[in-house]
Amino acid sequence: MNAVIPTVFFALFDTAVGACGIAWGNAGICGVQLPETDAAQTCVRMRQRFPEAAEAAPGEDAQAAICGISAMLRGEAQKLDTLVFDMRGVPEFHQRVYAVACAIPPGQTLTYGEVAARLGEPGAARAVGQALGRNPFAPVVPCHRVLAAGDKPGGFSASGGIRTKLRLLIIEGAMRGTPGLFD
Asked: For residue 15, what pLDDT is reported?
């Protein structure tokens, strides 16, 4: 029987907020994982999300992404717009939402409704929230920068939920004067 040669790989890497994970393949980054409770749990999550992936040392592109993500999570302004994502299987609407989220500068936020309006679909705030809840590239696609109406934190699907979202916003220097943001 012939062994299957993996085409997707993953690695864990340390950051200021804990052990993150990244998966990549020939078509680009397949996913990024924010920390779970510890590195072992982050590894379990990566294996669940990418069961076909083999753990490996990151190649040049993945290492560049790791350096950028690590710097971002230390609070350093990073332009991660040169990273290539493998969007196969990501619905077109989600891709459009992710593009708007990527255009939000660190330290700034939009609401789900504002993202929907920028998409030309002002009634799609709930769909925007659902797309961001399925974001496979957080925090590179910065779904944490999108808030609920009234600048309330809203939900966050990463481990730690809203506390993680607020922590990321604090690291990025989100304006503390935003009513309701840190209530």
From this structure: 95
Residue pair 28/85 in contact (Cβ under 8 Å)? The answer is yes
What residues does 14 pair with on adjacent strands?
19
What averages of pLDDT result for each successive group of 10 residues across the chain (183 residues)? 73 96 95 95 97 94 94 88 92 97 92 97 95 94 92 82 89 66 53
92-172: which CATH topology? Arc Repressor Mutant, subunit A (1.10.10)
Distance from C-alpha of 155 to C-alpha of 166, rounded to nearest angstrom: 11
Question: Of 149, 151, 129, 132, nearest to 141 (Cα)?
Answer: 132
128: DSSP letter: H
Known catalytic residues? 143
- Is CATH 3.40.50.720 the classification given to domain 8-72? no
